[in-house]
Automatic annotation (TrEMBL):
GO MF term set: ATP binding; ATP hydrolysis activity
Alphabetical UniProt keywords: ATP-binding, Nucleotide-binding, Transport
UniProt KW Nucleotide-binding keyword: yes
Recorded superkingdom: Bacteria
Full-sequence range covered: 1 to 232 of 303
Protein name: ABC transporter ATP-binding protein
All copies of domain ABC transporter, residue ranges: 5-231
Length: 232
């Protein structure tokens, strides 16, 4: 297994508020990592910084294979916590449009969109307007959009927190499938989701990583109930 991404001494301060404090970690290719912590712990700030949407106050984010002038966004797919969809578009139109924004030709984007609609399980609704989609379908479409350009790393910010139980199950099942093919980093404040899907957890509190490791490693250190109490 090779190192995909190295984060060194990353900090992010908003005005005078330190949201992320000097964190360092490495991601191995092919792993699924959960960033878990309560509201305000800094999860979104970390994801947005890794995605190149926020400039770090200090520290570095480096992809192992990235060349000097490479655009970070080529390597990363990012689904924000509150994605924006154009509800008047069909799922197919939205993905073709998104693919072209990601510098695919219209033909390439169309082919990739067809494949992805099958992969995320909404091909039968591809010509329906997104406004008619359920929450789970929208989220799966958002995941398809995030990977349209075949990124090395897929980052999902609280991908299931706004969904009903059916939508939540659909998205977790899709993530189980995708993790066979790509490296995934997702944030959550629900320990059972992290436990179900991830190979490793980064436990975050007040902008700092307080623990890192697999669930079984962390279980050996803590009583599970004690971790749950801290993160619910
Ligand atoms: P949540 O689960 O509520 O989304 P989070 O773990 O994703 O929380 P962040 O959204 O990264 O946490 O926020 C970390 C801290 O930074 C919080 O105290 C938040 O109030 C603050 N913060 C986030 N965005 C901004 C901003 N644009 N300006 C000022 N402070 C911010």
């Amino acid at each position: 297994m090779t190192t995909l991404l190295t984060v060194k001494n990353l900090s992010k301060t908003y005005d005078s508020k330190a949201a992320v404090k000097n964190i360092s970690f490495e991601f191995q290719s092919g792993k699924c990592i959960a960033l878990i912590g309560p509201n305000g712990a800094g999860k979104t700030t970390i994801l947005r910084t890794l995605a190149g949407l926020l400039k770090p106050s200090s520290g570095t984010v480096k992809f192992t294979d990235m060349k000097e002038n490479d655009d970070l966004r080529k390597h990363i797919g990012y689904l924000p916590q509150y994605p924006v969809f154009y509800s008047w578009m069909t799922g197919m139109e939205f993905l073709v449009y998104s693919g072209q924004l990601a510098f695919l030709s219209k033909t390439e984007a169309g082919k990739r969109a067809e494949d992805l609609l099958v992969k995320v399980g909404i091909s039968e609704a591809k010509h329906q307007r997104i406004g008619k989609y359920s929450g789970g379908m929208k989220q799966r479409l958002g995941i398809a959009q995030a990977i349209i350009h075949k990124p090395k790393l897929l980052m999902l910010d609280e991908p299931v927190s706004s969904l009903d139980p059916i939508g939540r199950r659909e998205v977790l099942t899709l993530m189980e499938e995708l993790k066979k093919e790509m490296t995934i980093l997702f944030s959550t404040h629900i320990l059972s989701d992290a436990d179900e899907i991830s190979d490793e957890l980064l436990l975050l509190r007040k902008g700092e990583i307080v623990e890192a490791g697999s669930m079984s490693e962390l279980r050996q250190k803590y009583q599970t109930s004690k971790i749950e109490l801290e993160f619910q």
